[in-house]
Every structure is written in structure tokens, then in C-alpha cells.
Amino acid sequence: MKQFTSIIAILCLLVSCKEQGDYNKMAEKKVPKVVDYNFDVRPILSDKCFSCHGPDVKKRFKGLRLDTQEGAYKALKEDPSAHGIVPKKPMESEVYLRIVTKDTTQLMPPKSSNLQLSDYEKKIIKKWIEQGAAYDTHWAFKKVEKPDLPTLETSEWVANEIDYFIAEKLAENDLMPNPKADKERLLKRVAFDITGLPPTIAMQERFLRDTSKNAFEKIVDELLASKHYGEKMAATWMDVARYADSHGFQDDQLRTQWPWRDWVIHAFNENYSYQKFVTYQLAGDMLDKDNVEALLASGFNRNHKINQEGGIIREETRIENVTDRTNTFGKAFLGMTFECAKCHDHKYDPISQKEYFQTFAFFDRVPFRENNEYAAAKLFAEPPKILITDSLVTKTLPFINKTPNVKVESMVMKDIPNIRKTHILNRGAYDAKGEVVESATPSAIMPFDTLQYKPNRLGLTQWLFDENNPLTSRVYVNRIWQELFGKGIVNTSGDFGMQGELPSHAALLNWLSADFMEHDWDIKYLIKKMVMSATYQQSSVITQEHLSVDPDNNLLARASRNRFTTEMVRDHALATSGLLNKDIGGRSVRVYQPDGLWEASTAGRGHLTEYIQDKGELLYKRGLYIFVKRTSMPPVQMVYDGTSREQCEVRRLSTSTPLQALINLNDPTILEAARVLSEKMTEEKGTISEKIAKAFRTILCRKIKPEEKELLVNYYQEQQEYFNAHPQEASEFINVGEHPLSKNTQSVKVATLMQVIHTLYNMEETIVKS
Amino acid sequence: MEKEQFEHRLNINRRHFLSKAALGMGGVALGSLLMPDLLKRKQQVSDELPLGLTHFAPKAKRIIFLMQNGAPSQLETFDYKPKLEQMFGQDLPESIRGGQRLTGMTANQKNFPLVGSHFKFNRYGQNGTYVSELLPHIASITDDLCIVKSMHTEAINHDPALTFLQTGSQVGSRPSMGSWLSYGLGSENKNLPSFCVLLSKGRGNGQGVYSKLWSNGFLDSTHQGVQLSASEDPILYLNNPKGMDRTNRRKMLDHLSELNHMNYKEFGDPEIHAKIQQYELAYRMQTAVPEVTDISKEPESIKELYGSDCTIPGTYAANCLLARKLSESGVRFVQLYHQGWDQHNNLVGGIKGQSKDVDQASAALITDLKQRGLLDETLVIWGGEFGRTNYCQGKLTPKNYGRDHHPRCFSMFMAGGGIKAGTVYGKTDELGYNVIENPVHIHDLHATIMYLMGLDHEKLTYKHLGRRFRLTDVAGHVVKDIIA
């Protein structure tokens, strides 16, 4: 009841406050002395004005365009004596007059738009006009220039260049960085960030004892050299590449695209430059004819869903596939929402519908099934494809983890230059063909110079990696930052356009992006640079000051406490219990999953109607390898914020829900890990207190504190009494999972310690990088 | 301006609560459980109102959507076309077809012979509404229904059409209707999910269902539809493992909570408290969910009402009964999917069995809600993703035929929750090919559903990747004529 009251109290407070209209008395953001178009003005115009007075020519009201200087300064169509904006004269600028007018019929934005300007926003517009109403290129479309490092009063805290930029902003906001994280927490954090796996006790011990100055650097190098690094990096890339083991749609048939995933792991482990990594994936089929590896990598563009429904209209399906490739290209590599320009000119960003289809044209030369027989045949791989034989693996593609004598086909790309013409599709409809267009890219990002680049995907890739391309490096650097720090410098990592959030540290992003290019797009170098910063190595303790000044941790006066990804939750349990199958690559595996999920949702056709769980060692492979059936996603991934693989995704959410608690409490994967670790510990020598301490250190990756040990030892004794009195329950409790019980298992002892260990697996800290 | 201030105030309160975290998180936890986005750091909501408050007085509080997967033929159920019987075997005039595209299944057919319903239609209710003999129970409650005969959609194949009906987009990455309502209105019961999903299969030609249909899309995963299954675990991983009883689980949670509190002292992260609360909620769900899903205690009269199948878990009848129980307990949106309506051929036999599976229980649900006084505040919707062609697919014989997909017109019905009972809305031409009066697009249906729930479909938005998304995309009109 008390709880209800407090909620009602908030609502009442809010409502009454709304009625009294006393907002103006509340603290407001200060209008800066010098207003910056990109950072202060454009976000307002973009969000509140551009959808009617922006780039989309068809939806432009009264011909007034506010996203360009020419458009805004021009005489109004209806009243040539008036101007949208008169620099330095807000009271003569219609734009200003119309946002402050009391006349509701004149007010902008109009009431029907459901949009409003705050007082602060009106003040910004006014000041900007007073200061000359200067326009500027959108920050993300400006060429990357490496800025000088900021000058600091003291450089005591800084470990590398990154910290200069962070320290500067902290000082501006009167914040101090947190002290360095303790070594154990730091080791856990960096191990998960680089390999996705926990540090072993031996590694913890080694790092704690190593007092040399470069102890941390040694660890970082060791982790980057681990084969598990490639797996960790690949896990995120699967979201970007919308990887799945089924085609999606109605019948959702099996596809065998996993050799492509093996390549991704290989490429990361070999530390291919980002340029090579992307070139192989976008245009691997257009490189040297003998380069089968690159051909395999080009499967990136075939990972989209494929409709094999009987009633499909071929051209509609084909267009959908090309659309997916185009949108993925925009989001994954340029951080732009291309899809908004398919049906009309982009409403916010300078991408016209024509430019959309010019980009589309790059991906439109792929041969498509000639009739629906392919659909009927339900192929695991639709052409173009390659057959991966044993000899191909031995001679050329040794990183593919294939069972001998089993033939596997994977989909790849192929172009037939004159196969068809690309048209603008009116309203984006597949059958509404308009003007024919040639391959090109949105010129506001960077014009596509046909003298320099061939009009094909290889040329497109060269355009992407031109040092003048403003987005490629920024977008990737930002995503790596997001993986390590929890969110990007640009929080909207999939939208660097006008409606995206502004970078929290624009200069830092520029510096890192320039540095990344200077170092030949070296991904391991980039990661090392980030984790070696003092910023990364701070403790994650949150103070009251943090909560009041910077609750979202935009300024990074502390490390963020980021929750594990769904893969990490699984891999942590498997690794700490010793169950983990460290075999790298291979076909996707069907691990424990509640009965009946596939069966309940299937239409009853094809190879994936029944969930046939794998056996033995395959049950213990990393989360990366879990079989992804698009229409029935693995439930743990759904609940732990995995992506749906319907389309390219560049960011995962991190939520906290009761269904996640139920998984950690009752999923046999976690329970089995607890049981197996308990068995192992039970068989080892030592006191209960020592065993608990060791289990704790294994799972939490730090030494147990006395009060924790006291609590857990008491809990152990209590549970021992319980299971002694309930031996039947003890043997039931430990009978979980397919890993065989040891012959001489003493069920009461194992169950008791298992209970304690299972509690450890459920601690909040366990699945957090703190 | 108001919005900023409003959010500012919201933030102040959030922080105020968080700062009192150590004293007990009850208030915040409850608030965030019922209205998960209310206390989020970033408010990405309507420009007008905070979440949890409606835009106008709601007529309905909860929804039960009886999705008939595969698309039931309107011509054998609600849209009576005697003219088709007269024109048996004659080719569909091109003037009627008007260049409408065809699916890959009938595109190569040489002709398109018209075929009427094999099943008789009779008149029911005060207005003498035509309903097919296939659906006697539904026919008997005609006076409670509003039958819309002028539904139309954009997609022509199952997956995109179903995805469109569920999410307002054919693409498959947007939040489902239930997720939107959970986001906009929150939950009424802190121990149950606000959006539940129930699956069943008929005997007809099956078309799969997919988890993306109840996906939260870009919304927080607290708004994800939770699939309830007929197995021992009605919600995945709900039950404690063998050998672990509830008392012992409680002890574990107490120790766990203490350990987490120790960690909170060190780190001061409010998320630690949120986690503790999620465990407590999970614990409460362990008893709350089985209580709701247990139909063994329902009286015989109720079981008779829904039909004997309702005691067999996983059947459509059982799911209808379960839907009532969930809805009654405050679940905002209960989504049923019943497969088997895809009668491309052998329609006569197929639709007969399929109708028998759903007729009694669908009607029973409405009757049951009514007798409990819940129908007024519960909106029940029944229908498929598109309609079926008025011409035959495959071989036409006097006794049997098939029908292909048809997006241009189909029928749905609604009951309760502010809907005008005993009405028929919209009209198709005499051959049942095109809508000729009061068309209702899927976006209009969504707009109307949201209106009934007290929400303005243009105002419940979520800003994602630079755009304010809504369930109705950029279209949709509330069909005021069908609102009581």
C-alpha cells in the first residue's frame, strides 16, 4: 500500500505541477555564449522543423527549406518581402517570429505535429540568428582531422591520449576521475572485453603478483593473442551481419552459412585490418579469381533472410534482398539510416531517393533464382554458392572446422555486370519502376568519383576506405568504444545523421578515428589503445555526486558497470565450471532448450520442425555457436537482449527482467555448471571454507571477503543439515545436465556445495563487468 | 517546453528515489514494474504525456486477440455472396480483378473460375446478420459482435501480412501491438507479464508463427510478449529444479540478496537493487503464474461452455479459457495464434474441421467475459492476416475447391471494450473481390484499437535511430463508426 502511495504521489506531483504551469521557475540549461550550429542549433531544427522544411522535396511546405543556408535566407514564396532567416535580425526572421508567436494559427511547429519548442530551444534559435545564423556542414560529414591534444593543468592522471580529452571535459564539469580499479576487477573486465571469457585463477594470481610497471599491458597483449579473441569479436559481428542458421520466413529452412562465421573468427584472430576485413566481405568475389577465402567472406551479403514461401512473387523477393544489402551497408559501415530514403527522399539526412537507388545498384547485379523451383527445393544454400570440400579445407581454408566427408555449401556473392538495369522504385514498390540509375553513393557523404573508382562493389569498398570518407573510421571506432565502455561516444551508434545524438567527446572521436586510419585500420591496435587508457582502467564505484551530476556516465568520471551479453552469461558458467568446449568454429549447435519451442511454431515442413538436441561435447560450446533459427530464436538469447537477426543491428540493449532471473535460477546450463564445479571441488582436498573461497574466486574472479565467506559458510552448514535430512532431494538436485556424474559422487556433499555455488552464479556482480 | 520540465521533474524524482535506495526500493521497484519505462534515465516517449497516462478516457483496459493464422476465407464465414454461387465456374472478369497481382501459386493459372460458398448462410440476431453454418456458436452471439467486412491489407503472403498485422510493418523488426500497449500503458498486475502469447494448431494446412511477431523491436525487452506453453513450465524456466522446494529457494534468495547488498555498499550502483527486485518478482511469478494457468478449478459449467477440448492443454479451447483467466488477472494484452486456415485446396473439408476447432471456444470466451461483467472493459478481436480469393485455386469440382491469398478484402469481428455491438461495418462488391464501402486498413484497425485503449496512435511514439516510430507508421484513422 505504501508503495502504491508513493507512485501515486509522483503522478500527482507531476500532474499538479503541469496544471500550475510553474515550469519557468525551475532550473534551465544555460544558453552558451557562442552558439554552435552543429551542436546547439541543428539538433533543434532537425528534430522539430526538417520533416516539413528539410531535404524531402515532396514534403516541403511552402517551399521553405531550413536545412541549407540558401533555403533559409531566401525570400519566402508567398511573401517575397519576408525571409525565413535574416542573419543578425531575429525580429525580421519569420522562423523566429513564428516560433514565438501567441497566434496559435501561425505557431510553428503547428499543433497538429505534436511537436513543441522549449524556451531554451527558442533562445538558442534567437541567439544563433543574432550571431549571424551561420550554417555549417554536419559534423559527421566533415573530413576526419586529427586534433591537437587538449592542454591540461596537470597530466598526472593521464595514461595515453584518450585521457586528455576525457580529463578536459571532467574539469569543465568539476568532476574528478575515479581511482584506478582494483586489479582483480580490472582483470575480469579486460578479459571479458577482449576474449569474452573469465580469467583463470592462475592468471589472476600471476597478475596480482606482477608488480612491474607494464603488468597490465602484458595481460592485454596476452588476451589479444588468444584464439578466443576472434570468437568474442565475431559474436558482435554476427549482429551486424544478421547471421542465422535458417532462411527465415514461413518455412524457415536450414541454411549452412557457418563456414562464413569460421572465416570471421579467423580474420579477427589474424588481425586483418578493418579495410581488408570489410573488403573481403563486400567484394571478396571481385578480387583475385583464386582467392577462395575472399569469395567465402563475401557471404556477408547473403546472410539476409530469404523467402522460400510457395506464393512469393520473385521480383518482390529479389528486391527485398537487395534492399536488405543496401540498408545493411548504410548502417553497418556508414552509420546512416539509408532505409528512410527508399520510398522518398530522406526526411532528415541529405540522401535523396535517387541516391538510395544508386547505392542499391551496387548490390543489384547478383543473379537470382530463375524460378520458384529453388524455393520448392528448400536449399540449404541458394546460388550463387560454393561447395566446401575436404581438399579445399586442407589446402586453402584450414580455419573451417568441418567434419571430414561431409559436404557443405555456403552462399557467396557474384556479379553479372549487365544482368539488369536498376530503376528508382516509386514509393519503394518493387513493381513501380521509375528512372534508370547508375551506381553511386550519397554525395553529401562523399561524391563517388567514377574516374577513381569502378562502379561496382569493389569500387564501393575503395570509396569506403578513401581517407576522405568521413564516416567509415568514425563509425567503427565508435562501435569498438561502445563494446568496451558500454555505449558509444555517439550514443546512437547506428545513426550518425542529423537525428542521431551528438558525440559526447567529438574531438576524441576525431582523434581516435584519424589515429586508426594512420595505423592502417589495425583493430587490435585500436582496442589496445582504448583499454590502456586511464579512463578505461578506472573503478566503477558510483558516488552520490556521480548520480546527481552525470547519472548516465556520459563524461566517464567512472567506469560503467556493464552487464554481460547473453553469450558471456553462458560462456562464463561453462568456463568457470570447466565444462567449456574450447574447440573453435564449426557448425552451429543445439544446446539445452525447453521442449516444444520449435514444434509449437513450425508449419511442419522442412528440416527444422523438430528440435533435436546435440549430445556430448557439442553441448558445451560457446554461445556464439548456438543454432539460430530465425522464427524461433534461442529463448535465452531473446531474454538476455540478443538481437533477432531479422536485419543488421549495431547495438544491443541491456535490460533487467525477472525472466533473466528465472534463467539463472532454473536453466539446466547454469545448474549443471554448478553441479560439475561442486563435484570437482568436493573431490579436492581442503576445508569447506577453502573450497568455498576457491569457488568464489573462480566465479567472481576475485578473492572472497571475510563477511562473504562467513555468510556462505553458514549457508553451507544450513544446507548440509537440510540435505542430510533430505537425501532424496540431494540426489534429485544434482541430477541435472548430461555431463555424467562421477562414479563415487556423494550426493549430499555435492548438492550442498552445489547450492552455494549456484548462489554465486546468481550474484549480480557475477554477470557484470565491474 | 512542458515535456522537458516534465521529464526533468521525473528525473528529479527518480534520483530522489534512487538516493533513498538503501532504505528500501519498494516504491521504485513497484513503479518500474508496473510502468517499466516511467523511471528510465532517458525518456523517449510521447511529446505530450508520460507513459501510463492515457490520452483520452479509455473504453477498454485489456485486449484478447484471437489470431486465426493462415487467413480464414471470408466467403465461407461472414461475407455472404450468393452471386458467386450463380456464377459458379465462370471466369473472374478482368474488370473486377483490375490488375491485382497474384501470388506465385496462381499466377500461372489459365483461368480464374468463380466459386461460391459450399456452406449455407443463415440470418442471426436482431439485425438478421448473415453468418455461415460453419460457425453456429459465433452466430448465436451476433448481437455482441461488430463484424467488419471491409478489412484490407498490403501484403499477399503469410509472413509479411502477419507481421504487418502484428507490428504495423512488413519488415519484421518493429514492436508488436502488445509491446506498444505494454509500453504505453504498463501492467495491471505486478506478478504477471503485461503481454502474453498462447499458441495452438488446428488440423488444417499449417503456417508457422514466429517469435518476431511478439517481439519488443526497439522497445525495452520488458515489453516482449511472453510465450506461455502447455508444458509443466507455463513460462520458460519458471519452475524450480528438482530437489529444490519453495522454502529452500526462499533461503537461497535471502542469502543472495544479502550478498548483493554487500556489493551495493561497495559500488553504489542502483542497478544492483533493480536486480534484487527482479529476483523477488521472479519468485512471486513462480506462484502467481501457475495459479492463473491452472484451469482444473474451473467449474463444470465453464468447461462445458468452452467445450471438452478446453481441458486438453495447448488446444485453442484451452487457450481461450486461459486467455480469460490471464485477462481477468490484469494481463494487458493476450495474443492467441491458431494455425491451420490456409485452405489453398480441399477448402471444404479443411475449413470445416478448422471452424469446429475454434467456433465454440471463441464464442464461449465472449459469453464468459460478459457474464463476469468484464466484456465492457475487454476488447476481443478475431480474424486472420488477409482474405481469400473468390475464384478457385486448383481443380474446381461441384464438391470441392481451394482459394488463394487475397489482400483486397477480408472479414474480422470485434466484441466488447467500447465496440458497437450488433453491427456490421463495410461492404464488398457482389463478387466479394473489392471493398466498396468503408474500407478499413490494418493501420486503421491499429488506430482504432489504440483509441479504445485511450491512446492517440499519433502520439504514442518512440524515437529510435532518429525517427519517431508509431504502431501506425505514418497512416491510420480511427474508425469512429464502430465505437459505441
Number-wise, the strands of chain A total: 6
In CATH's first tier, which class of chain B applies? Alpha Beta
Whole-angstrom Rg of chain B: 24 Å
Biggest sheet, spatial arrangement of strands of chain A: 1-2
Question: What Rg of chain A is obtained from the alpha carbons, in whole angstroms?
Answer: 29 Å
The proportion of residues forming helix of chain B, as a percent range, comes to 25-40%
Sheet bearing the most strands of chain B, described? Answer: 9 strands, mixed
Q: Can you write the helix and strand succession of chain B as a string?
A: HHEHHEEHEHHEEHHHHEHEEEEEEEEHEE
- State which percent range the strand residues of chain B make up: 5-15%
Number of helices of chain B: 13
**How many beta-strand elements of chain B?**
17
Structural class assignment of chain A: mainly alpha
Shape field of chain A = globular
Which class best fits the helix and strand makeup of chain B?
alpha/beta
Summarize model confidence as the mean pLDDT of chain A: 92
Describe the fold and architecture.
The complex is a heterodimer of chains A (770) and B (484). Chain A has 770 residues and is mainly α. Chain A has helices spanning 2-20, 37-48, 50-53, 69-73, 94-100, 119-130, 161-172, 183-195, 201-209, 215-225, 228-240, 258-269, 274-283, 292-297, 314-334, 353-362, 373-377, 390-395, 457-464, 472-485, 506-518, 523-531, 544-549, 566-577, 597-601, 635-639, 658-666, 668-683, 688-700, 706-725, 727-734, 747-761, and strands spanning 385-388, 408-411, 422-425, 433-437, 562-563, 768-769. Among the domains of chain A are: 2-136, no CATH class; 562-655, no CATH class; 666-769, no CATH class. Chain A has a two-stranded antiparallel sheet with strand order 1-2. In chain A, strands 3-4 form a two-stranded antiparallel ribbon. In chain A, a hairpin with a 7-residue loop joins strand 3 and strand 4. The model of chain A is unreliable at 1-27 (pLDDT under 50). With 484 residues, chain B is an alpha/beta fold. Chain B has one domain (54-239, 288-482): Alkaline Phosphatase, subunit A (3-Layer(aba) Sandwich), CATH 3.40.720. In chain B, strands 1, 4, 5, 6, 7, 8, 11, 12 and 15 form a nine-stranded mixed β-sheet that branches. Chain B has a two-stranded antiparallel ribbon with strand order 2-3. The longest helix of chain B is centred in the last third of the chain and has 25 residues, at 347-371. The two termini of chain B are 36 Å apart. The model of chain B is unreliable at 1-33 and 39-49 (pLDDT under 50). Chains A and B meet through helix 1, helix 23, helix 25, helix 26 and helix 27 of A and helix 1, helix 2, helix 8 and helix 9 of B.
